[in-house]
Every structure is written in structure tokens, then in C-alpha cells.
Design goal:
Elements lengths: L23 H28 L9 H9 L1 E5 L2 H27 L6 H4 E4 L5 H13 L2 H8 L4 E13 L3 H4 L24 E7 L11 E2 L11 H9 L9 H8 L20 H9 L1 E2 L6 E5 L5 E2 L7 E12 L1
Antiparallel strand pairs: 1-7, 2-3, 3-9, 4-7, 4-9, 5-6, 5-8
Length: 321
């Protein structure tokens, strides 16, 4: 891959231009929805530039790797991991029960089925255990230095129990039968704020358990560009879903606006840039206690579980100015 995010030829895509002709009225409506969001994300980008100007900082090896590659990994020692693992068990069991109830009712497993948002009030033991390892391993310091901030804090924690056969991860287009590309799920985050993400394994994760994937150095592709602003804006818009109506509206936009933050599902299977992106992917295969910390401006994804379950804790760590 080159030093830019993939651009997709949507006019030639079988689910977009292959099915629909551009419709000026639909395009005008879609543009009216996007323009305020582009303005909003332009302001967010200006704030990023004002705060740290993409002049990343580091106070340790973790930070140095983040600057160079956009991702770093650390294995938690048992004395820090054991309290996290123990406190997570009741939440894991509750999600597993929800999944079982959903299946028993003959319903599809959705994203919200497998996720549980956490809070310090409802989950004090787990929150405290996470805060402890972030302090003792210097991860708060890593986040603050990376964004040239005064400090960092936990902005959000979520626990996931991902089983195999999740329809929302496997069927990208409901109205047309297309092979999901090997890049499905690849995206950059649309928030645009100054934060790092972490994925902590609460179970052993092998190739079949859908390991998190990160493309190293992709946080540098088109850094600070208008294209990234537009991608973030699109994925915060009502145009995000891949319904037939919204794909027709998307293909009716000017070419500059035909970009997405979540683009992996639209890439062409077998294309050279598709294969190149997968070849560059770092897959977080590893044991319980492996933490993958990354810049959400990297191209990344949660993998598709093919057997067993993946138990993982997602951390959002925000810079404080």
C-alpha cells in the first residue's frame, strides 16, 4: 500500500455503480446531510492541529512504537491481570446468557448483543483493576505524551463476548449477494478526538477467534487531510448503512465525497490493494492478558470469529489538556 487510505472506484463497484445510476436529487439531499458534519469535523481537525500538531511525543518504548507504527503491545503480568480477569467474569456470564437467549428466540446475533458498556458505578472492581494497571504500566503517561497533553484518563470501557456466526459481521449487503472481501471491517475511527484505544484479551485468542487487526503506520496515511475529515463526517451521517437507497445516494455524491471511514467492506476481493492491506495487517493473536494499544487513526478492525468465542475488554483512553 502507498501512504494514503484506499480509494474505491464506486462507479464500477457491483453494489454501487453496477446497480445504480447517479441521481442528482438524491446526491443533493446526501450532500446537504454531509456538509454540516464536514464543517463539524473540520473544526475537530483544527483542534487536533492546535493541540499537538501531529508532533507526537513519547516517554517510553510504548510511545516510541506508537509514533512509528501507530500500535504497540504489552503482556500484563499476572498480578495485574488476575484482578481484571476475576472482575470481568460476572459481565462475561451475563453477555453469554444474553447471547443464549437471543439464539433460543431464533434471532440474529447483533453488535449490541455481544457488547456491555461498563461504568465505575456499576462495575467498580473492574474499573479499579483497569485503572491500576494503566497507572503501574505507565500507559496513562504514554497517552498524555503521545498527544502532548497534561494527563490522560479512561473515557470508556466495554466488554465483548464475540461468538462465531455473527450476521452483522458477515452479511454486508442485504439486497445483493456478494462475497465479503478479506478486508471487511477495516476502518478508521470517526471521532477525530485525541485518544488511544486498547484491546485487552480476557481469553486466549488464536487465528480462528477473530483477533483485532491493525495496519502499522497507517495512522500516517493522509495525515490531517481533508479526505480524512470527509471520511469521519460520512461515518457520522445517516448515510452510513449499506441499504439500496443509501448506496444510490452515495453514488450520486461528487467523487471527492465518495469516501468512508469504514471502507473495508467495499473493497474488491482479489484486487491488489485489497491483498496488500491484508498482508500488512498485524493480527493480535496471543494469550489472555495481551494488550494491544493503538491510534484509532490507524486502519484497524475487530476480526470475525470463526470458532469458539473471543472475550475482550475495549479501552478508550483520552488525553486531557
Amino acid at each position: 500500500m502507498g501512504a494514503e487510505l484506499p480509494r474505491i472506484d464506486y462507479l464500477s463497484h457491483p453494489a454501487y455503480g453496477g446497480l445504480f445510476q447517479p441521481d442528482p436529487a438524491a446526491g443533493a439531499h446526501a450532500r446537504a446531510l454531509l456538509e454540516p458534519l464536514i464543517e463539524e469535523m473540520t473544526a475537530v481537525e483544527a483542534q487536533r492541529v492546535d493541540r499537538f500538531g501531529y508532533d507526537y511525543g513519547a516517554v517510553n518504548r510504548q510511545g516510541e512504537e506508537l509514533i512509528e507504527r501507530g500500535v504497540t503491545q504489552v503482556r500484563l503480568p499476572d498480578e495485574l491481570m488476575d484482578p481484571v480477569h476475576a472482575a470481568a467474569q460476572p459481565v462475561i456470564q451475563a453477555i453469554q446468557a444474553r447471547i443464549a437467549e437471543t439464539r433460543a428466540a431464533g434471532k440474529a446475533i447483533r453488535f449490541k448483543t455481544v457488547e456491555q458498556l461498563l461504568s465505575p458505578e456499576a462495575d467498580p472492581a473492574l474499573w479499579t483493576a483497569v485503572d491500576r494497571f494503566l497507572r503501574e504500566l505507565g500507559i496513562y503517561d504514554t497517552v498524555a505524551a503521545f498527544f502532548r497533553a497534561k494527563s490522560a484518563r479512561i473515557n470508556g470501557l466495554a466488554l465483548f463476548v464475540n461468538p462465531a456466526s455473527q450476521e452483522w459481521a458477515n452479511r454486508l449487503f442485504k439486497d445483493v449477494k456478494l462475497e465479503a472481501p478479506p478486508t471487511a471491517g477495516f476502518h478508521i475511527d470517526s471521532n477525530g478526538k485525541c485518544y488511544l484505544k486498547g484491546i485487552l484479551h480476557l481469553s486466549d485468542v488464536g487465528p480462528e477467534q477473530g483477533p483485532t487487526g491493525v495496519v502499522p503506520k497507517s495512522h500516517l496515511w493522509g495525515q490531517g487531510s481533508r479526505e480524512r475529515v470527509i471520511r469521519r463526517a460520512f461515518d457520522r451521517s445517516p448515510l452510513l448503512a449499506r441499504t439500496a437507497e443509501l448506496r444510490r445516494a452515495f453514488i450520486s455524491l461528487p467523487e471527492e465525497l465518495q469516501v468512508k471511514a469504514e471502507f473495508g467492506g467495499d473493497m474488491a476481493p482479489g484486487a491488489p490493494d485489497t491483498a496488500a492491506l491484508v498482508d500488512e495487517e498485524l493480527r493480535a493473536v496471543g494469550p489472555t492478558g495481551l494488550l494491544t494499544l493503538f491510534d484509532p487513526d490507524t486502519v484497524h478492525r475487530g476480526g470475525n470469529v470463526r470458532s469458539g468465542e473471543r472475550h475482550a475488554l475495549q479501552l478508550v483512553l483520552t488525553a486531557q489538556y
